[in-house]
Amino acid sequence: MINYYFDNTNELKPFTHELEANDNTLPPDNALRVEPKFKDGYWPCEKNGEWVLVEDHREKTVYNIETKAPVKIDYLGEVRDGFTELEPFDFCKWDGTKWVLDNDTKNESIIKNNQSLKNTLLNEANEKISILLDAIDLDMAEDGDEEKLKNWKKYRILLTRIDTSDINVIFPTKP
Q1: Dihedral-angle region of residue 133 (phi above 0 means left; psi in -120 to 50 means alpha; beta otherwise)
Q2: Sign, CA torsion 66/67/70/71
Q3: How many angstroms separate the CA atoms of 44 and 6, rounded?
Q4: Is residue 166 part of a domain?
Q5: Among 14, 28, 129, 161, which is least packed by CB within 10 angstroms?
Q6: DSSP 175
Q7: SS3 content of the chain, % helix, strand, coil (to 5)
Q8: Which residues pair with 47 in a beta bridge?
């Protein structure tokens, strides 16, 4: 005879282990003499003197539908409200049943990246122009420096004319 134990401190009373039982005794308060059945994705739990199968998502990753943060499940039962097993992707939002593309957030990110790239390229152009001007002013210019200066100045002007709020903006080619 075997005692099949469950955790009676847990509200779902999940199966924990089994041990040989004495033939002439009754099972303890936290055990049944009926063998639990197992099924993928479920875990046996005691309910009213029987084993019932309860959803088991333990160790699976779910995602918070507000923050998109991943969380490892450490409990038995259904996935809790506010979480989904569907993995979020860049620039998405929860529509109540699935992740969908959030075009506003995507466009805001593109515009922010455009502005950052424009600033980086302008800083680079300013640095190149400054060095070339110094070389020319100090009579240290090499062949082609004046043409390089002219090309970098044209490039800088083209950069300043870029509308970074245009999500399809095309940046000019560096000289």
Answers
A1: alpha
A2: negative
A3: 9
A4: no
A5: 161
A6: -
A7: 30, 25, 45
A8: 50
Domain range for 151: 103-160
Does residue 23 carry a pLDDT above 90? Answer: no
Q: Token pair for residue 17?
A: 């282990």
Task: From residue 133, give the alpha-carbon distance in Å to each of 84, 125, 174.
Answer: 59, 12, 18
- Conformation bin of residue 4: beta by default, left when phi > 0, alpha when psi is -120 to 50: beta
Q: Per-residue pLDDT tens for 111-156?
A: 999 999 999 999 999 999 999 999 999 999 999 999 999 999 999 9
The CA distances from residue 106 to 51, 112, 163, 166, in Å, are: 49, 10, 17, 13
Residue 17 main-chain phi, psi, to 5 deg: -170, 175
- Domain tally for the chain? 3
Q: Would you mind telling me the total number of residues written for the chain in this entry?
A: 175
- Angstrom distance (rounded) from CA 125 to CA 151: 10
Dist. CA 111–CA 32, nearest whole Å: 64
Model confidence pLDDT, tens digit, residues 147-160: 999 999 999 999 99
Residue 46 lies in a domain: yes
Helix (H) or strand (E) holding 158: helix 145-160
Is 167 domain-assigned?
no
Contact 60, 38 (CB under 8 A): no
- Residues 116 and 151: their CA atoms lie apart, in Å, by 22
